[in-house]
Amino acid sequence: MDNTAATALARVTGHQRRFDARFEAYFDALGQHLAAPGPGRFTPRCLELLRDLSLRGGKRLRVALMYEAARLVTTEDVPGLEEAALSIELLQTHGLVHDDIIDDAPARRGGPSTFYAYRREFPDHGRTALGLAVLAGDLAAFLSQRVLLEAKIPAELRHALLEVQTRAATDTVIGQVMDLERDFHALPDEELLHTVTDYKTTRYSILAPLRMGLLAAGADLTPHDGQLRRYATPVGILGQMRDDYLDLFGDEAVVGKPAGSDIRAGRRSYAVAATLAAATGKERSVVEEALGDPRCPVATVARIRDIARDRGVEDKLRADMRRCAEAASAEAASWRPHWREEAVAFFEHLPFWGTAREL
What we know:
This protein is an all-alpha fold and 359 residues long. It has 16 helices and two strands. This is Polyprenyl synthetase family protein.
């Protein structure tokens, strides 16, 4: 790892460590001030599960993007930035809870999903478990707005941050709907995959943190929003491609989950769609028969992985990710006339670190 990469990684780690301490303090205060009426136990348990999922892991790249976006403008403390970071991560918690309901996923971040935690607690009351999980995700979404509403910042800035956050949240839900529809396409084309990624991931994971960081630092987004979009789009595609790549080709010991979850769930991900497109007739039948089978054996996943490698899918995805990283890096390099060199260098290098992480 060169010095630039090491510096970027150290900055991400530093943001993660500081934010995690702040996130923990937020939930401590929330538990005291959001008391349930009467002697009920369901609300405290809901908050406990949200806290557990929120603090259990995650690299906090959204937080790092937000803080580094502010550093494009200033190195001073930025009022409202902390609340903006809490807001975007609470929105992430909301998304994880609902994703795991949609996917019927038992685990998340090395522990039980919120849905399955409730299922274990209410084994004979499935509707109650489902309802509580849905409401937990809803609560996280509303808390993500409330933390901005209560921020001690000028009303104009509060409104601007809320507008970015709520637009990103709306787009993300639309992206989730599109994600489900995508899997009804026998072979989704690249344009559809990119569109789903844009709505489901890029707009709230990349673009919203960039916008919120700059807004909090006092920047006018109007002359720069096109630049932010040109950076966010390839970074978002890169991140989704990496996740899809790891699901098929990743080392379980490194990734932390079994390979083939996209196949078992019937997802036409970047990796699965590329494999379907490249496979021969008989090979494609193997993939199609496995798609959506929750009991798809490890040996079949391994066979599909071999087909993908033989047909050049692994190399293609790596090359596509590299091109995305180069496009994003070139865009960031063009920011030098406008913003601080140190922060520009961070954004210039970050996509290449993203291509290498866990591959």
